[in-house]
Amino acid sequence: MSESRDGTTVITQCDEIRALVRRAQQHDQTVGVVMTMGALHEGHLSLLDAARKDCDITVTTIYVNPTQFLPGEDFEKYPRTLADDVTAISRCGGDYVFAPSNGEMYSPRFSTYVLPPKVAERFEGAHRPGHFRGVTTVVLKFLQVVPADIAYFGHKDYQQSLVIRRMVEDLQVGTSIRVCPTVREPDGLALSSRNRYLDDTERQNALGLYRALTRAQELVKRNELNASRLRHIMETILVESNISRIDYIGIVDPETLIDVETIDEPAIALLAAHVGTTRLIDNVLLAPIGTSFR
Ligand code: AMP
């Protein structure tokens, strides 16, 4: 069953989208997929733009995946704005939206999960046990249903992008993974569907995440390469921004997510903190002078 709007077709059935993707590829068309939970913003749309540049056909999936939420998290209240999302995708020139129901994705007999790779253990994996198992499982399922040539993910969820890159490599999935830069508000706050939970004061406080990360970047450029000193400074900035509940502040190797002591090679600074009742994550690359990232 599909419904068309301004050149964008909404599909809800796995068999239908799989057949469309296969048919396109048989006609030598390349397919790009962008996986989202909807409530789309410019960050999501930047992935779609990248897919449109690289590929002949684009599929944007919209699905709030229950298996990646822990009990007590915001699964029920997560914003669901399908009609607006389809309008935004159609304005961007997206070809297909795949928006399956829970019943379509998980049969009552469902019981097979993907064990996430080692890079899933720390940070989000430690603070949200079971989250990455839900992510790897649903992403692999989507790659079965939408066997695209390239799948696009955001740097904003850096650990997630690494988990997916490893899974695709380890399980020899035939889709290439492309990771695109984080899109930010003019003042630096990383776009997130969860930003809409913030009231005005929290919105101001949330900037502390970006301030802490960019301060670390500045200090690295000025040759402060001691990771524990940098972490301490970042923590102070978060506390000064009235962010008292910090889940983690990490300065790590970009490929292994193992702590670095001295930043003599490019590293990732990543953090998660609660602003009011909203949990936000962000990260930046720390590149000491004279180094380059991959
Ligand atoms: P979500 O809907 O939050 O699951 O995100 C879907 C995809 O969009 C993921 O690959 C995210 O990393 C990516 N994404 C979310 N926010 C941003 C952002 N601000 N900039 C770039 N990509 C983003």
Largest sheet properties = 7 strands, mixed
β-strand amount: 15-25%
Shape: globular
Could you give me the name of the CATH homologous superfamily of the largest domain?
HUPs
Secondary-structure class: alpha/beta
Number of helices: 9
Compounds present?
adenosine monophosphate
CATH class of the largest domain: Alpha Beta
Q: Which H/E pattern describes the elements?
A: EEHEHEHEHHHEHEHHEEE
TL;DR?
This protein has nine helices and ten strands.
Topology summary:
Blueprint: E1 2-5, E2 8-11, H1 14-26, E3 31-36, H2 42-54, E4 57-62, H3 82-91, E5 96-98, H4 102-105, H5 124-127, H6 131-145, E6 150-154, H7 158-170, E7 176-180, H8 200-221, H9 227-240, E8 245-252, E9 267-275, E10 278-286
Parallel strand pairs: 2-5, 3-4, 3-6, 4-5, 6-7
Antiparallel strand pairs: 1-2, 8-9, 9-10
Helix pairs in contact: 6-7, 8-9
The chain binds adenosine monophosphate.
Describe this structure in words.
With 294 residues, the chain is of the alpha/beta class. It folds into two domains: 179 residues, Rossmann fold; 92 residues, Pantoate-beta-alanine ligase, C-terminal domain (Pantoate--beta-alanine Ligase, Chain: A,domain 2). The protein is 37% helix and 20% strand. Strands 1-2-5-4-3-6-7 form a seven-stranded mixed beta sheet, sandwiched between helices. Strands 8-9-10 form a three-stranded antiparallel beta sheet, with helices on one face. Strand 4, helix 3 and strand 5 form a beta-alpha-beta unit. Helix 6 crosses helix 7. The longest helix has 22 residues. The mean pLDDT is 97. Adenosine monophosphate binds next to helix 2 and strand 6.
